[in-house]
Amino acid sequence: MVILRNKLRPFSAARYAGLAGFVLLAACLGYGQTPNSCLDCHSALPDPLGVSQEKFSQDIHSQKGLTCASCHGGDPTSDDPDKAMSRKAGWKGKIERKQIPQLCGSCHSDPTYIRQFNPSLRTDQLDQYHTSVHGKRLAAGDTKVAVCTDCHSVHDLRAPSDPRSTVNPVNVANTCARCHADAGYMKGYSIPTDQFAKYSTSVHHEALAVRGDLSAPTCTTCHGNHGAAPPGVDKVQNVCSNCHAFQAQMYDKSSHKEAFQAASLPGCVVCHGNHGISHPTDAKLGTGPDAVCMQCHKPGDACDQARAGFQSGLSRLDEAIKSANQVLAVAESSGMEVSEARLGQDQARDSLTKARVTIHSFRKDLIDQDIQAGMTIAAKDLVAGKKAMVERNHRRVGLGVSLITIGIVLAGLWLYVKKIEG
Ligand code: HEC
Ligand code: HEC
Ligand code: HEC
Ligand code: HEC
Ligand code: HEC
Ligand code: HEC
Ligand code: HEC
Ligand code: HEC
Ligand code: HEC
């Protein structure tokens, strides 16, 4: 490549002549500013050599005072292309894909350098990258994997906190999808290309992209930005516990945890999946299409019986809450005071939610405890509702009797008046 370039020099020099004129003009217009012949020249060049002033001014490096030469080397004060882009002035020539991590790392792995600009910026990206599948494969000569610029872009590279950054949480999934959802590009690798499609249907995508809930995960929350898995998580499969702590606590104490580990099964992911996680319902505990237990347990065995017990427990409580709700709603709309029982219903519903978390212990005694707590409250509320209805009926009878009495009196009065008139 270098040899080729040097051979082309005399020929290229002629081509540069016209551009040099333009550069002179641009330099005059930009008088007073630090000269940047690279930008002056390249902003006039067509793609892929073109880098416009407008684009580069969006780049965090440009905003922090770095120039083209900070990354590419060369002499930005010279309008002569042979001098500006000379190896003697440190010009690096075309930056090959496999050199990119090293180039970015030359600054970003240097804490003393980075601290001058931003003391809180991490400097482990390159180290982490080396541990990722991308990094390992690149080192082995596979240049189709993601390098720094595939995720971050180049020449209009923004800080991740900028909503327009390709690595801002709301944009990450699209950035990964450029390769991972492209079956043509990923041909020859033995991994699926459905991660983005599935993620797009998940509860997590719904929370993050639709509801703007930044506590929900995108690709890199689970897979790590640069490394193999986020810090503190030894395997991607265990990442769920970072956020779903209550379910994880229960699961960690269950006999499934050990049994799954022994069989190298991926924990939560066995029952919930990884990319297309949907809102679970009690049907997961059933025997229909959404069922997850029967892939391992046999109909009628002890675990299957426990499963059926969990499911019927949950649906019994759900029914109890609904019946109490119905009675309370009618009582309330008839003007009866049932606010205390209404509050109780919230507690009953909390017990149901808790029971659905406790499912992850897979222990009858613990699950029954939550269900029983909810059943007791729902039963009490139902009684309160029914009492209110009885009270309402009493009042209605009372009202009816007094209405009839008033009617009779009025009729008597009317007859009496008629009689006097007669
Ligand atoms: C007078 C115009 C001019 C100036 C000044 C100039 N360049 Fe270039 N640059 C070019 C042209 C034209 C090419 C394409 C050369 C070729 O194909 O041989 C190029 C190619 C490049 C390439 C791509 C090499 C490749 O093979 O893909 C890089 C990178 C580059 N220039 C960076 C710089 C930097 C950095 C500076 C400033 C230090 C600079 N240029 C100054 C005109 C210029
Ligand atoms: C933060 C480092 C950085 C800065 C600053 C930077 N570049 Fe680059 N540039 C790169 C990298 C990395 C590549 C290779 C991108 C790739 O292959 O994906 C590149 C590629 C190029 C290319 C070759 C494009 C091609 O496809 O062959 C040109 C030309 C270029 N840069 C010019 C410039 C000019 C002009 C400036 C200043 C306006 C500039 N660069 C500023 C890192 C930088
Ligand atoms: C010449 C040194 C240098 C090189 C080479 C370099 N950077 Fe930077 N980079 C910086 C500096 C300085 C900052 C500003 C840090 C700050 O103030 O936040 C920065 C900022 C960033 C940021 C924003 C960080 C933040 O959150 O503020 C990202 C992302 C980034 N660089 C990625 C890259 C990538 C990718 C490459 C390679 C294409 C690269 N950098 C090459 C020096 C460099
Ligand atoms: C697979 C995509 C991907 C690759 C490859 C990648 N990054 Fe990042 N990078 C990200 C994401 C995502 C973030 C974090 C965004 C956030 O903070 O929400 C990030 C953040 C950063 C930051 C800001 C500080 C930080 O660590 O959070 C810097 C600097 C950075 N990357 C540099 C690099 C460098 C240098 C390379 C190459 C060695 C690289 N990145 C490769 C996706 C990537
Ligand atoms: C430039 C294309 C490209 C981009 C962008 C990209 N990847 Fe990759 N990725 C690859 C290729 C190619 C592989 C190697 C496939 C393999 O491992 O067989 C890979 C491998 C992986 C693997 C390992 C798969 C395995 O089990 O072997 C994970 C995980 C991964 N990428 C996640 C991501 C995430 C998350 C993002 C976005 C932040 C991303 N990638 C962006 C191309 C890309
Ligand atoms: C909720 C966490 C989570 C999110 C979000 C997530 N992944 Fe994954 N991903 C996983 C788990 C768990 C695995 C399975 C790893 C294993 O079995 O060791 C996996 C596997 C993969 C693999 C390996 C191939 C495969 O499909 O099994 C790739 C590539 C991948 N994910 C890319 C992505 C991309 C791209 C996104 C965003 C569109 C994404 N992931 C979002 C958790 C997640
Ligand atoms: C970064 C935090 C985070 C990680 C990691 C994470 N989740 Fe979530 N998860 C959330 C958030 C936030 C929601 C949305 C809660 C809501 O709907 O209000 C959610 C929702 C869910 C739901 C639906 C809950 C419901 O009631 O509808 C399930 C199931 C789920 N996640 C399972 C998993 C599994 C399995 C993993 C690991 C593969 C995982 N999550 C990883 C944060 C996370
Ligand atoms: C053996 C199967 C299984 C495993 C393993 C499993 N779950 Fe669940 N999970 C379920 C079932 C079944 C439900 C649905 C309960 C219901 O709604 O009736 C559920 C519900 C959930 C919910 C939402 C319901 C709620 O209200 O709590 C979340 C979040 C969740 N699981 C997270 C996890 C996490 C995190 C792990 C790993 C620590 C995990 N699950 C492991 C079967 C499993
Ligand atoms: C991937 C296979 C697999 C799935 C899916 C699975 N189990 Fe299990 N389950 C096991 C294994 C293995 C054991 C341990 C058996 C033993 O210790 O004898 C077990 C044990 C149990 C036990 C006994 C727990 C104890 O503490 O004694 C119950 C109850 C149970 N499972 C219920 C369920 C329910 C409910 C589901 C669905 C939500 C489910 N299982 C899904 C494999 C599975």
Descriptive tags:
422 residues; mainly alpha; Butyryl-CoA Dehydrogenase, subunit A, domain 3; binds heme C
**Unreliable runs, pLDDT <50, ≥5 residues?**
1-14, 17-32
* CATH class term of the domain at 302-421: Mainly Alpha
Oligomer: single chain
CATH topology of the domain at 302-421: Butyryl-CoA Dehydrogenase, subunit A, domain 3
Give the biggest beta sheet: none
Instruction: Please count the helical segments.
Output: 21
* Beta strand count: 0
Helix and strand sequence:
HHHHHHHHHHHHHHHHHHHHH
CATH architecture of the domain at 302-421: Up-down Bundle
pLDDT averaged residue by residue: 91
Please state the structural category.
Answer: mainly alpha
Measured by DSSP, the beta-strand proportion falls in under 5%
Cα(first) to Cα(last) distance is: 127 Å
Radius of gyration: 36 Å
Helix content: 55-70%
Cofactors, ions, other ligands = heme C
**Could you say which overall geometry the principal axes of the C-alpha atoms support?**
elongated
